Amino acid sequence: MSKDLFSNHAHQYAAFRPTYPQELYDFVFTHVKNFDTAWDAGTGNGQVARDLAKKFKCVFATDISAQQIAKAHPATNIFYSIAGETTTFETNHFNLICVAQALHWFNREKFYMEVNRVANANAIVAIWGYGLLKISPKIDLLIEDFYKNLIGPWWDKERRLIDESYQTISFPFQEIKSPQFAFSFHWTIDQLQGYLTTWSAVQKYIVDKNFNPVEDLIQKIKPYYRSTMEISFPLFMRVGKVNN
């Protein structure tokens, strides 16, 4: 069963989580045969569903968190529902199945069985995520120490799959070689603080300690931070064809 670590801060998640570059979608779309139906599993705030809805006739987006879905992007061709790795979708229904920054929380065996059930012949499955952000050498050292040492004990074990860029997970599909992608944003320090606060380990730390450790980190970062700075994320993905 997927873990729900994001319901209690769904509003922050919707406000501060980064969006993905169009180049990533364009690469995935080149392998899709038709654009009738897509499934965005683990949709969170619906940011991927929103982008898929520009291309597909119908997008079905699922998440285990009702609070996340309540904050998700609305569109007439996006159909949100609460579900985990298994669903009530029709068999052989989808042309594309996506999971963004969420597969590490899934029971992958159950999910892959469901993918094979609901995918059309030669449907595409695309999973992706992003690792620890980069800003500047001095700030990066502060964030890395915070990430590994201060809140390190509060990360769930699944986080290591992100650190390993999903290269160590099973992926039982006919894999398509993916190019390297990166994405970046120009953020104020308040935006950076908002994003760091969405980390699941930070939220668990707050519950345990009754204190947000990001506040102290931001004070250490401030001397090195300009009014806005470029924030870069390493982006990784795996794409494959479902042979069912």
Structural description of this entry:
There is one protein chain. The protein is an alpha/beta fold and 244 residues long. It has a single domain (7-241), classed as Vaccinia Virus protein VP39 (Rossmann fold, 3-Layer(aba) Sandwich), CATH 3.40.50.150. Helix content is 34%, strand content 24%. Strands 1, 2, 3, 4, 5, 6, 7 and 8 form an 8-stranded mixed beta sheet that branches. Helix 1 crosses helix 8. It is globular. The model is unreliable at 3-10 (pLDDT under 50).
Index terms:
Rossmann fold; globular; 10 helices; single chain; alpha/beta; 24% strand; 8 strands
Write the layout of secondary structure elements.
Elements: H1 10-16, H2 22-29, E1 37-41, H3 47-52, E2 58-63, H4 66-70, E3 78-82, E4 94-100, H5 108-118, E5 119-130, H6 137-150, H7 159-163, E6 174-176, E7 181-187, H8 189-197, H9 200-209, H10 214-221, E8 229-241
Parallel strand pairs: 1-2, 1-4, 2-3, 4-5
Antiparallel strand pairs: 5-8, 6-8, 7-8
Helix pairs in contact: 1-8
User: Can you tell me the CATH topology?
Assistant: Rossmann fold
Distance between the termini: 24 Å
Oligomer: single chain
- Integer-rounded radius of gyration: 18 Å
- Reading the helices and strands in chain order gives HHEHEHEEHEHHEEHHHE
Strand residues, percent? 15-25%
Overall 3D geometry?
A: globular
The low-pLDDT segments are 3-10
Mean of residue pLDDT values = 92
